[in-house]
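Predict the assembly for these two chains.
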Amino acid sequence: MLLTLLVASCNSEPWQTRDISGLMPSLEFQLSAVNGESLSEADLQGRVVLLLFGYTSCPDICPTNLAQLAALKRRLPASQVEAVQILFVSVDPQRDSPTTLATFAGYFEAEIIAATSTPDRLRALSRRYRTTFSYGEADADGFYEVTHSSGVYVFDQNGAARLLFRPGDSVEQMAADLTRLLK
Amino acid sequence: MDGFIELLFPWEASPLILVGIGGAVLMYGIGLARGGSPGRWRAISFVAGVALFYAVTQTHFDYYSQYLFFAHRGQHLVLHHLAPFLVALSAPGPVLAAALPDCRISGSAHRHAKGFVAKLYRGFQNPWLAGTLFVGLIAFWLIPGVHFDAMLSRRLYWIMNWSMALDGLLFWWLVFARNPAGATPHLTFGSRVLLLTLIIPPQMLIGATLAFSEQSLFDVYDVCGRAFPIAPMDDQQLGGLIIWVPAVMMSMAGVLILLARQLGDGSHERAGDNESVALGRIRQERHGDHGAQGGER
């Protein structure tokens, strides 16, 4: 299998963002969406999923990432917009209630599914994609920082992990790869 | 307290490692019970080495190794330098052999297989190849693209760690091997010191390159999140220093031990002989037992 991957990666043109084909398990999750209903990968079947971890009180990475992904979706032709789903997973369930998540997702000009889960499930999900999160000390106002992944995991229509968007990637690069993935 | 106990549990339990480590300890115990007498310090060295292998792979140390570059370098320092150094220094061969079931190799297929494995082993234990592999593996897993994939893929991560541990065992085994009649090539004192000296400059170079680099080379830790907040450059510099200083010190420690052994009054050699004699006696006794049982039937 490794050999096939190697041959495949040698033959095809390189991707502009990070190719992670074969490195990670396929898309699988159990979350609670903003309306309190449960959400799993089956609900997003057939769509390209852009998965990112964060929290709504995030001062920098999350708003930047989401704004970038929203811009990315606006670049897609109308026929493809429906085929791409942004999934924001909050790793701060203590502060991020369904209402908070709904308000936060509404700030961005794109349809974003914002969801969270129990600490155990969140830990299992982040471990599955080999990332982590941790909570900083709370300040006098009770505010605490959450360290979390700054990448965006891209799964294809079959749920296979294909690409990783990193903070340095431009919207142009992401758009080029996404269009290629949707072909 | 609960938190502390939790730290001792594996972050990612690996049956292969648990079986490997459990098997090694069990066999050592059986070997001791059957009359193997390595002496206190060698037994301690073996147990400490095996315990270190366990500690860095099957406790929460592994969690930090996955999400902090410098902790990852600490993990490799133990897997590739410290733990195999202690295990090889303990020369557990005779004790482990005493634990093996006494089966005579019969049939040419078996003999061929054994001959092939011995040839392959000796091939890997060519000192030039061993030295190149030792520093080459450190460098290989630190190629930024390779490192990125290894930290992202669970399978590659374990392949990386196993390769470091196995290569460490091969290398230090070659450095400390004492039995001229064994399968491991018997190097002269000078060759051993030369081997330990030649691996120093490349490790210093790799360590210094990372410690002095002005750009963050391993962004996988930025993407995946760090176990606790530390500036990426601090993380990388600490990692570089771990490759540079303690890793190089292990060569020095090896040379000192070889020197002490060389200057030793030969009593070590005699002790080694005594041990092979003792092992031979254990074997003989066991054969005797088998014979007696056979006679009764």
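The CA atoms of residues 62 and 122 of chain B lie 32 Å apart. Residues 289-297 of chain B have pLDDT under 50 and may be disordered.
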